[in-house]
Design brief:
The protein is of the alpha/beta class. The protein contains seven helices and 15 strands. The chain is 28% helix and 28% strand. It comes from Winogradskyella luteola.
Length: 305
């Protein structure tokens, strides 16, 4: 299998390590403009290293785009023109400004990795979207302590683009919110020049959805997300990346992520990333499609502009 990876940052290296263990005898090509990073990587990684893709004309079986979002769209176009069989792009696909990408290719997938969390898998299989009255979801972290530099302090960054997009995708994946009306929105910048704190709500199919994202919360040690659902049968469901709690008539049923343990052939940064790469090289059943990703981008555009 021939695999191309654009970008040798944290995500490019993460996906490489996992794929190198999942795919026997894979042939890797890396496109990374940073010559120093290329030189250092050659000492530890078996593959072909290039500073640009001008000489790449033959199609690849899988291409992963792990670059900054402002080059996502042009790289996807190159991949499709070259005939690459499967294209994987880290989220969000081009950021909120890319909301009307014309090529609706069915072989392009976006890297919303939280879809592969065992808790999310349980919710997908056990909660009917039509049973929901109201949903509250949030993402909290202490990611930004100093003003970011470069593109991370511009329109392609911010808590909504970089972190909140994960939660928006989960809402759409689990509860089908593609038809919505935004009722209220509020944004604040505390450290960066873009959104550090975002609050908004919307209605979708007579259901209420409330969102809160904050990546400058000094009380948070590790990044976290959580959801709380009010259901038509009078019960409520709370879940985060570690557990599910179902409350009804004064009783609480608890399900831990350990009880939902899934076997994987290689472990790195949790089961989610390995499950994501397994889906990529097999049937692509769970991965976010380009169509779903554009729904999220369009929603982010309405919030930010």
């Amino acid at each position: 299998m021939k695999i191309l990876i654009y970008g040798l940052g944290r995500m490019g290296l993460t996906h490489y390590v996992i794929l190198n263990n999942l795919v026997p005898n894979a042939e890797f090509t890396f496109v990374e403009p940073n010559k120093i990073l290329n030189f250092l990587s050659k000492r530890n990684i078996n593959g072909r290293f290039l500073t640009n893709d001008r000489k790449l004309s033959d199609p690849f079986d899988i291409t992963l785009i792990t670059t900054p979002p402002f080059v996502h769209e042009s790289l996807v176009d190159k991949c499709l023109e070259r005939g690459d069989k499967i294209v994987f792009v880290e989220k969000p696909f081009g950021g909120h400004s890319n909301y009307s990408y014309s090529n609706q290719a069915n072989n392009v997938f976006i890297g919303y990795v939280l879809r592969f969390n065992p808790i999310i898998h349980w919710v997908k299989n056990n909660i009917n979207p039509t049973d929901i009255l109201e949903c509250q979801s949030q993402y909290l972290s202490n990611t930004i302590e100093n003003k970011p530099k470069g593109w991370r302090n511009g329109v392609f960054s911010g808590v909504l683009n970089e972190m909140g997009s994960h939660i928006l995708d989960l809402n759409n994946y689990l509860f089908e919110i593609e038809d919505y009306d935004v009722n209220y929105k509020e944004m604040k910048s505390h450290i960066s020049d873009v959104d550090d704190e975002v609050k908004f709500n919307l209605t979708s199919k007579d259901r209420k959805f409330n969102f809160y994202f904050n990546w400058v919360d000094k009380t948070i040690r590790k990044p976290m997300f959580n959801f709380e659902l009010a259901l038509k049968n009078g019960s409520s469901v709370y879940f985060d990346q570690q557990k599910i709690e179902i409350r009804k008539d004064g009783e609480i049923e608890k399900i831990s992520v350990v009880a939902l343990e899934q076997k994987i052939p290689f472990y790195l940064r949790g089961v989610d990333f390995t499950k994501q790469m397994e889906d990529l090289i097999n049937n692509q059943n769970t991965l976010c499609t380009i169509q779903d990703a554009l729904v999220i981008n369009n929603l982010m555009k309405q919030i930010l502009e």
